[in-house]
Amino acid sequence: MDRNLPLNLVRVTEAAALESARYLGRGDKNVVDQAAVNGMRNMFDTINIDGTVVIGEGELDEAPMLYIGEQIGKAKEGCPEVDIAVDPVDGTIAVSKGLSNSISVVAIAPKGCLLHAPDMYMDKIAVGPKARGVIDINAPVKENLRNVAKALNKSVSDITVTMLDRPRHEKLVKDIREAGARIKLFRDGDVAAAIATGFEHSGVDILMGIGGAPEGVIAAAALKCMGGEFQGKLHPMDDIQKERCIKMGANVNTVLTMEDLAKGNEIVFAATGISDGELLKGVLYYGNDMAKTHSMVMRAETGTIRFIEAIHRLDKKPEYAK
Ligand code: VTB
Ligand code: MG
Ligand code: MG
């Protein structure tokens, strides 16, 4: 994989963020998403990859762009055949309401290396590098907390678990409290929260709970770059979803490991903040057609993590980048 691909990829998430952040707090989540998709899609066509969307905006009939199976990139001879996972806006409702923590994300891996996860829920557990190898999504909460605490050389009472603030996590919250650990809830965006576990001083040690399965694949790709660990189990809500799981060779008990979700080491990941979050600041627009973005880009092969703060002269952007 070209080592400059990550630097190119950040243009893609920047474009999505620059377009969609315009609609912060305007109350329309579809407009937010559409703007991000347009920005992302146009920028992809300037990058020399032979890409297929494996995690995207849905099937062709429901999504005109960045749909699953769509070929994207400016393929030229010798350029890599890759799988692409996108979430142009993780947190569309958050952006539409003017709430925090929404990001634009993309992960790329060689063809066949990213799981084609169905659009349903996934039960997740994620940790950073120091706790890699000690988590087990099937183990009781107490046991995971004890093992992670040991790996981090902390006591359980110093461990902070982060999760989406949802009624479905009532039992999980109870178990964590009983075990004596701390909890930090967030409203939206569990990709950013999973990434936070990969940074030692982020204030969160473990992500737990149920969020979107596509976001699970993207989070696994990010944690692969960071040397952390992610495990997931698909969480179908009805018989139709159960059927979809079985069709793809999984059931509710199948544990999806890092290797099932994001295989190998040739993975690249990029994210740009849309609305302000703890991981990345949101887009700042200022006078005379200027904007500032905050992004991160990572490559599993070398483990380099780059934070990129960019100042954009919007009046000078070429047509494809508008
Ligand atoms: C999840 C999570 C996302 O929305 O999909 C969540 O993975 C939806 O959960 O990061 P609910 O159905 O309970 O709202 C996000 O938080 C944002 O898209
Ligand atoms: Mg989205
Ligand atoms: Mg999402």
TrEMBL record:
Instruction: Return one GO MF term.
Output: metal ion binding
Q: Which InterPro entries match?
A: FBPase_class-2/SBPase
Write out the pathway annotation from the protein's UniProt entry: Carbohydrate biosynthesis
The residues the record assigns to binding substrate are 90-92, 121, 166-168, 188-190, 212
**Which UniProt key words apply to this protein?**
Carbohydrate metabolism, Hydrolase, Manganese, Metal-binding
User: What family classification does the UniProt entry report for this protein?
Assistant: Belongs to the FBPase class 2 family.
Q: Name one GO cellular component term.
A: cytosol
* PANTHER family, A to Z: FRUCTOSE-1,6-BISPHOSPHATASE 1 CLASS 2-RELATED, FRUCTOSE-1,6-BISPHOSPHATASE CLASS 2
Q: Does the keyword Manganese apply?
A: yes
**Reported cofactor(s):** Mn(2+)
- Which reactions appear under catalytic activity for this entry? beta-D-fructose 1,6-bisphosphate + H2O = beta-D-fructose 6-phosphate + phosphate
UniProt-annotated binding residues for Mn(2+) 2? 87, 90, 215
Q: Name one GO biological process term.
A: fructose 1,6-bisphosphate metabolic process
- Bilayer-crossing regions: none
Top-level lineage group: Bacteria
Name of the protein described by the UniProt record:
Fructose-1,6-bisphosphatase
Q: Does the keyword Zinc apply?
A: no
What residues does Mn(2+) 1 bind to? 33, 57
